[in-house]
Structure formats: structure tokens, C-alpha cells
Amino acid sequence: MKYLLILFLTVFSGRAYAQYDSIAVSILDSMSLEIGELESCSFRFFSEFDISNDEYGLITHSESGTAFMKSPDKMFIEKKGDRGHKSFYYNGNSFSLYSFDKNQYATVPVTLSIVELFDSLSSHYGVDFPGADLFYPDFTDNLLETSNNLIYLGQTFIGDTECYHVAGARDDMTYQLWVTSDKHSLPKKMTLVYLTKPGNPKYSIIFADWKLNESIDDSKFEFTIPADARSIKLIK
Predict the structure, then answer these.
(1) Pair 26, 32: CB distance under 8 Å
(2) In 105-226, where does DSSP find H-type helix?
(3) Strand 57-70 vs strand 40-53: parallel, antiparallel, or unpaired?
(4) Cβ contacts of residue 21 below 8 Å, gap of 6+?
(5) Which CATH architecture does the domain made up of 2-231 adopt?
(6) Whether residue 122 has pLDDT greater than 50
(7) Are strands 187-194 and 74-81 parallel, antiparallel or unpaired?
(8) How far apart are CA 83 and CA 89, in angstroms?
(9) DSSP letters of 25-79?
(10) In this structure, are residues 130 and 88 in contact, taking their beta carbons and an 8 Å threshold?
(11) Tell me: the pLDDT tens digits for 145-203?
């Protein structure tokens, strides 16, 4: 990319002069390229997110889970935490959501790529997925279009994993990304701080146990209706 030509590039935008560190851009490009070339992957995740409470201010909640993806159109995610225990299935022809707590499920027909599915479910039903933006092929370009600055902060550790540390800011949030410094350049952690919401709530997610291009049987993405489960509709 053109950002690799110099160490630190200043680009004029309608907002202000945006400053992008070319090392940071290169790290994010490598991460997006690695993810974009995967045939399949799986990982564990742990996330924390703040929700405003009238009496106590921001309360931090958490959830954890596992994700399996198979290019171009298969996905399975199971997560549990303070917002309940749920699983999501997409087999390329239909998307299903199941609530273990309520023994309820919803299924909608859809034929989209995984990334297109993320967009559709988020915009139409408010269903969000852990770190979904990181899987978009144009992630870096989208970040640069909306950011006021982007900087490389050096190498550090998340647990025992050495990572490149990148940070940036845009009008409505600040963000930090940690990308593994090995040959795979995979996301390890992401943190967001929402500047335009009361109290500046924070969201963070950690990825672990990545498995790349391993065989995943298609049955993993098929939803079987549990006994006595009640069908519901996804509400727009």
C-alpha cells in the first residue's frame, strides 16, 4: 500500500490532518491478509463490556465462547456470560440462533458470505458477533477512512504471547489492537472506548487457541432443534 512508502504520513481530510504510522498500517494489512486467505479457522474468545447502570454507573459484564468459520459461508459460534448462553449456526442457506436459557430458537433463510451475514444481522436484527470487524477484507482501509490518527506503540505481551501494539482514534472512539508478532499476524486483543456515550464505556475482546485451515465437518454448522424448544421470530 501507498502508506508503506514513508514512516509517518500526513493525509488531509475534511475533518483535520490525519496522521497514519506506516508501520501500524503494515501490521494491520498483514493481519487482514492472513485472515482473508484462511479456508477455515476456529478460536476461543473472552470479552468484557460496560453497560450503564442508573445507580452504579458503568458496570462491566463479560462473556466467553468459541467460534468456527469455514470459507466462504459457514459459521458456528457459542457464547455464554452475563447476557445468557446462546449459539449461532450458519450453513450457507439459513441462519439459526438458539437460547439455551429460554430453550428458544429462530431460523431465517439467507445465502450470504460470512462477512455479508455479519452486516445483515447487525443492521437488520441488532445481532453482533465478537470482533466481527476484524474479519472484513477491507478492515484497514475502513479504519483509515474514519480515523484521525493511527500509531504503532511497539512490541508487548498479552499473557505469554508477544504482540505488536497499535492504537488509534476517531471522532467517536479510541481503539487499541494487539496482533501476534509471529508469522501468522493474528488478532490477539482489541479494546474500544466509546467517547460519545455517557461515561465512555469500554469493550475489549481477547482471542486464544487459534486453529488455522484444519478440517471442519459441515455438520458443525447445522442446527438441530432441541427437544421442546420453542420457535420465535427475529425482530427487526
Answers:
(1) no
(2) 114-125, 139-146
(3) antiparallel
(4) 7, 8, 150, 151, 152
(5) Clam (2.50)
(6) yes
(7) unpaired
(8) 18
(9) HHHHHHHHHHHHT-SEEEEEEEEEEEEEETTTEEEEEEEEEEEEEETTTEEEEEE
(10) no
(11) 999 999 999 999 999 999 999 999 999 999 999 999 999 999 999 999 999 999 999 99
**70 phi/psi in degrees, rounded to 5:** -135, 120
The SS3 assignment for 125 reads helix
3-state helix, strand, coil in the chain (%, to 5): 20, 50, 30
The CA distance from 110 to 89, in Å, is: 12
The three three-digit cell numbers of residue 28, written as one number: 494491520
What are 105's three cell numbers? 430458537
C-alpha–C-alpha distance, residues 34 and 211, integer Å: 13
pTM, rounded to two decimals? 0.89
Q: Side-chain half-sphere of 166: how many Cα atoms within 13 Å?
A: 29
The mean pLDDT of the chain is 91
Nine-digit cell string for 122: 447487525
C-beta atoms surrounding 234 within 10 Å: 14
Amino acid (one-letter) located at 207 = F
